[in-house]
Amino acid sequence: GNSVTQMEGPVTLSEEAFLTINCTYTATGYPSLFWYVQYPGEGLQLLLKATKADDKGSNKGFEATYRKETTSFHLEKGSVQVSDSAVYFCALINLTGGFKTIFGAGTRLFVKA
Amino acid sequence: DVKVTQSSRYLVKRTGEKVFLECVQDMDHENMFWYRQDPGLGLRLIYFSYDVKMKEKGDIPEGYSVSREKKERFSLILESASTNQTSMYLCASGLTGRRTGELFFGEGSRLTVL
After folding, report:
1. What is the C-alpha to C-alpha distance for residues A112 and A102, in angstroms, rounded to an integer?
2. Helix (H, G, I), strand (E, B) or coil at A96
């Protein structure tokens, strides 16, 4: 079946540090891949997406590249800010399986000033 | 902006009570979803609906039911609440076509069952 595995947190970084949050997936066919972010006390918001191999999604300084050969979609940011502190979820949808979006367990990021 | 509104942010109920969680979206989306969020488990899909009066079971439907009588409203029902249903419940609506999978979430309803 379809599944998403992401690195366990929490991840604690200092402001301006480089961020990587690893995400790998299992799916048949060609899923679309997403990163969602959940700020404290809020629902999830779509951060970025990629729909085919080698696509790069980007938004707010974050980016992730769809790597089919390694079944990965790692989230990166060159210089994090305190305001980036949140929980980040990797997700996929495989349209051969219908409308279900499958989420990873989430990775909490703390950024210290 | 798309708005997904969940009726209650916090609820406290007793074991055996019937619980209704309401969700309304204002963007005419066909698809609506109910997830529960638990630490270390991420989001797990309870039920979803791709049209009025249509519903599909997600990964953990046991103990829950849903209702979608109007396109903009999707309700989650716990017929007889149990303590293991204490959780954060997230409603989402979603696009179709080339933007399938892009979900818009409400702020969540934190349910405590005593």
Report:
1. 31
2. helix
Residue of A nearest to B110 (CA): A41
- The CA distance from A42 to the nearest CA of chain B, in Å, is 5
Which parts of chain A register pLDDT below 50?
A: none
| Of residues B31 and A1, more confidently modeled | B31
Chain B's closest residue to A106, CA to CA, is B42
Q: pLDDT digits over B58-73, tens only? A: 999 999 999 999 999 9
DSSP assignment letter at B98: G
Average pLDDT over residues B36-50: 92
Q: Phi/psi class of residue A7: alpha, beta or left (left: φ > 0; alpha: ψ in -120 to 50)?
A: beta
| Nearest alpha carbon to residue B10 among B91, B79, B112, B113 | B112
Residue B42: list chain A partners with CB under 8 A. 89, 103-106
pLDDT for the residue numbered A100: 84
Count the Cβ atoms, other than its own, within 10 Å of residue A35.
25
Exposed/middle/buried for B3, CB within 10 Å: 0-12, 13-18, 19+? exposed
Confidence band, pLDDT 50/70/90 cuts, at residue B95: confident
pLDDT of res. B1? 67
What percent of chain B is helix, strand and coil (3-state, nearest 5)? 5, 50, 45
CA distance linking residue A10 with residue A103, whole number of Å: 17
Q: Which residues of A touch B (CB under 8 A)?
A: 32, 34, 36, 41-46, 49, 51, 89, 91-93, 95, 98-106
